[in-house]
Amino acid sequence: MPENPARTFHEAMQSQWFVQMFSRIEQKTGTIVSNGRMDQYLFPFYAKDIAEGRLTAEKATELLECMWVAMAQFIDLYISPAAVRSMKAMLIGKR
């Protein structure tokens, strides 16, 4: 996570990206931490940047699209899809 809180919409988007990527790497199971209500926690940054002329609606849309595409490209290689389907990835005891 960044050392300081986000000040702009772009920085808030970057923070959300870090949360998603680090949670996926940490869990190593292909699961995802929900983005939650992005409309609620990103709106103050969006409104401030729009009011100050630092951001346009088109640029905000582009940033959101880029984040969704980047998250969709993240492929977790720790567990194969076949193992997940058959639940063989679950440790249930010791041999």
Low-confidence stretches: 86-92
Return the structural class: mainly alpha
Outline: globular
Largest sheet: none
- Content of β-strand: under 5%
* Secondary-structure element string: HHHH
Rg calculated over all Cα atoms: 18 Å
Q: Total strand count, please? A: 0
What is the number of helical segments per DSSP (H or I, 4+ residues)? 4
Helix percentage range: 55-70%
State the distance separating the first and last CA atoms.
Answer: 40 Å
Mean pLDDT: 77
Structure description:
With 95 residues, the protein is mainly alpha-helical. The protein has helices spanning 9-27, 38-51, 57-73, 81-86. Helix 1 runs antiparallel to helix 2. It starts with 8 loop residues before the first helix and ends in a 9-residue tail after the last helix.
Task: Describe what is shown at a glance.
The protein is mainly alpha-helical and 95 residues long.
Please tag this protein with its features:
mainly alpha
What topology does this entry show?
Blueprint: H1 9-27, H2 38-51, H3 57-73, H4 81-86
Helix pairs in contact: 1-2, 1-3
